[in-house]
Design goal:
Elements: E1 18-25, E2 30-35, E3 39-43, E4 54-57, E5 62-68, E6 72-77, E7 82-84, H1 85-90, E8 104-113, E9 116-125, E10 128-135, E11 140-146, E12 154-162, E13 165-172, E14 176-183, E15 195-197, E16 200-204, E17 206-207, E18 210-221, E19 224-232, E20 239-246, E21 251-257, E22 262-268, E23 272-277, E24 280-288, H2 293-296, E25 334-342, H3 346-365, H4 371-382, H5 390-407, H6 414-423, H7 434-441, H8 444-453, H9 459-471, H10 474-478, H11 524-530, H12 539-550, H13 555-562, H14 567-586, H15 600-620, H16 622-647, H17 649-661
Parallel strand pairs: 11-15, 24-25
Antiparallel strand pairs: 1-2, 2-3, 3-4, 5-6, 6-7, 8-9, 9-10, 10-11, 12-13, 13-14, 14-16, 17-18, 18-19, 19-20, 20-21, 22-23, 23-24
Domain Nucleolar protein 11 C-terminal: 361-673
Domain Nucleolar protein 11 N-terminal: 1-287
Keywords: Activator, Nucleus, rRNA processing, Transcription, Transcription regulation
């Protein structure tokens, strides 16, 4: 998430449906999924096809799989039965009993109590709600009935276990949170009569006349809960908010409005909130500390801002325009990694709040400042002593500059932006609009630097850069400043910027030995242009294309964009990749000289990608026929050469061993027979 890079993608066949959330087995580092209710799939990260993954068809429908860090996966069936994954895999077709009858599972959760996994789920039948507590390893099952309440029903559940007691929190439709305590039974026998659970009011979700219509509830610690919902105030439009409440003192600790809307779901894992805000996944880090009455009611001594928000540092969420953009069209992206501290110590608040406000306030104040004042103030801001959030501050600086570029098309601080990218450790996620502005301004040098330095560039932007580089004329590129460090050591350039052709002797490749391979007769001039002996692009364009080769990508997400590349540009790019491939093959270690030169693996990967995306088109185009033929001959010669090397590998090792045994001062003639 921190790099905004998709790492893997797996899909079921057409017509199949994933019927419960996929989980990770923490012990084996495997993924577990269920499709079409009964078909279990298990695979690892390196597996490419889900269709070839482990498959087991079960005898009953699965409701959900829960994975515990130390207890392994636990499977809950729709009939209420529970099995550990290990037991289930021993006999996938084993009979699964029905624990519930006519009831629908509304919520479930898995927990560890000592060494025992415990699964808790709630069901509904005819307006009545029931709670089941199961210990699958001990075959222990206990059923309870939830105390009814007139004119209100539970909407959402969550739970935690402390000191052999289950604390079940219920979010009700009357805008209240109730608490139910369930002691864990030690006996393994089922109870004949269900016990009725009484509940107690924990929290009213209202403050100053405004009522929160909650949709999701998570427990942060023993004194704090987070509720996602819609806050409705008299005479105002309801607005979606993420709120944090102090259950000990019945107060709203802090809230944050989410203007782009949410999916109504809130997840919490390892002190991080996960929620969908608009079209992006927002991740918010938090830290809970011991609550106090003064902190809960906003009355910390000497506090300059008595409202509750002073005790939470939302950091980059404070100014959405300058600090973090929620307008990205990326389907999954980290747009906020914010620290939220529930603090009770005055010193912590006093130290953190002014610094955060100073950066945000400075950027807001500079929105309408002159160009000279803006750049001067921003340079002074970056020149300050290093702080833990200096990188985020510099990202804010770049965002402020790109915002001004979008508001004023005539403004573009090319040298300033280039200096920041070259001297600072930035990433795409810190300044997501920078490369879009550079593409609009056709700033090839800045795009080259970003491609070489940013680890998290989306595949869509990588493709846009590739298309821009290939479509720009050589004459225009010769007039701009481009870093040629990656090409000067293997492309010889004359004063007229035309490459000097040099003799090439490839490892294992001879044009004569494969003359009979292809019946296609090629004109001599055409062959010299496409057989890899001369670079098909100028040094400036070659350096820019090398930057694209260095950019990280995921094949699944790049391929759809690459298919949109115009055919002639695709052929030109393939010619350059073929040229690099031949150049690499000249060297014994298959490594190009120079700084940040492409590696043989990068070249081969991109050649395969390009052929996958455009093979049908290239086969149809006459101008690509010679290139594909030469590429085929060269690759086959390489395979043949390495195959011959493999045949004499044993003899070469024996010769190397004899060289070590031979005394350096003696003279001898030896005959080695290679079979």
């Amino acid at each position: 998430i921190s790099d905004q890079k998709p790492l893997g993608c797996w899909s079921v066949k057409h017509g199949q449906i994933l019927t419960c959330p996929v989980v990770c087995n923490f012990e084996t580092h495997e993924y577990i999924a269920v499709h079409d209710d009964k078909v279990l799939r298990i695979w690892k990260n390196e597996d490419i096809s889900l269709d070839k993954a482990f498959k087991a068809t079960l005898s009953a429908d699965v409701h959900r799989i829960h994975s515990l860090p130390q207890g392994g996966p636990v499977v809950l069936f729709r009939g209420g039965a529970v099995r550990t994954l290990d037991v289930l895999l021993e006999a996938p077709q084993q009979e699964i009993e029905n624990v519930i009858s006519g009831e629908v599972i509304r919520w479930s959760g898995a927990f560890m109590e000592g060494q025992q996994p415990i699964l808790i789920f709630t069901t509904e039948k005819d307006g009545d709600f029931f709670v089941y507590v199961q210990k699958p390893k001990l075959s222990s099952l206990h059923k309870y009935k939830l105390e009814q309440q007139e004119s209100a029903k539970p909407l959402y559940f969550t739970a935690h276990i402390t000191n052999q007691t289950v604390t079940l929190l219920c979010l009700y439709s009357n805008d209240s949170v109730y608490q139910v305590l369930i002691p864990l039974q030690q006996d393994a026998e089922e109870e004949e009569e269900e016990e009725i659970l009484s509940k107690s009011l924990l929290l009213n979700l209202s403050v100053s006349g405004a009522v929160l219509k909650g949709t999701s509830l998570v427990v942060l610690d023993k004194d704090h809960v987070a509720v996602l919902g819609s806050l409705a105030a008299p005479g105002k439009e309801p607005r979606e908010c993420l709120t944090i409440w102090n259950t000990k003192f019945q107060t709203l600790q802090t809230s944050k409005e989410l203007p782009l809307g949410t999916s109504g779901q809130l997840w919490c894992y390892e002190e991080k909130f996960f929620l969908i805000h608009g079209k992006v996944l927002t991740v918010i880090m938090y830290k809970c500390e011991t609550s106090s009455l003064a902190a809960a009611v906003g009355k910390l001594k000497d506090s300059q801002t008595p409202d509750v928000s002073s005790f939470v540092n939302w950091n980059t969420l404070e100014d959405e325009e300058l600090v973090v953009s929620f307008q990205s069209q990326e389907s999954v992206a980290l747009k906020a990694a914010s620290r939220m501290n529930l603090r009770s110590r005055r010193s912590a608040v006093a130290e953190e709040q002014p610094e955060t406000l100073s950066v945000g306030q400075l950027l807001l104040n500079l929105k309408d400042a002159s160009t000279y004042v803006l750049e001067t103030e921003l340079k002074q801001l970056m020149a300050k002593a290093p702080t833990p959030d200096l990188q985020a501050t510099i990202g804010c600086v770049v965002t402020a500059l790109t915002d001004r570029c979008k508001r004023n098309p005539k403004y573009y601080p090319q040298n300033f932006l280039q200096q920041i990218v070259e001297t600072r450790d930035l990433s795409y996620s810190l300044c997501p609009d920078l490369m879009a502005v550079a593409l609009e301004k056709k700033d090839m040098h800045l795009l080259q630097t970003c491609l070489e330095r940013f680890p998290d560039i989306p595949e869509e932007i990588t493709y846009a850069c590739l298309k821009a580089f290939l479509s720009t004329s050589e004459a225009h590129l010769q007039s701009i400043d481009v870093n040629l460090d990656s090409v000067v050591c293997y492309i010889d350039v004359e004063f007229d910027n035309k490459e000097v052709k040099t003799e090439i002797v490839e490892n294992g490749f001879s044009a004569e030995m494969d003359q009979d391979v292809c019946d296609t007769k090629m004109p001599k001039e055409s062959q010299s242009r496409s057989d890899g002996e001369s670079c098909p692009v100028g040094p400036q364009k070659a350096a820019l294309l090398n930057a694209v080769l260095h950019s990280a990508y995921t094949e699944t997400f790049l391929l759809p964009h690459l298919k949109n590349l115009p055919a002639r540009q695709a052929i030109l790019f393939l010619r350059y990749l073929y040229y690099l491939y031949v150049k690499c093959s000249e060297k014994v270690n298959t490594t190009l000289p120079g700084i940040r030169s492409p590696t043989i693996n990068q070249i081969m990967d991109w050649m395969c990608l390009l052929l996958d995306a455009h093979f049908t088109v290239m086969v149809m185009l006459p101008e690509a026929k010679e290139l594909l033929s030469n590429l085929h001959k060269f690759v086959r010669a390489q395979v043949r050469f390495y195959s011959e090397l493999n045949k004499i590998e044993g003899s070469l090792r024996e010769l190397q061993r004899l060289n070590h045994l031979r005394e350096s001062q003696t003279y001898s003639i030896e005959v080695l027979e290679i079979i």
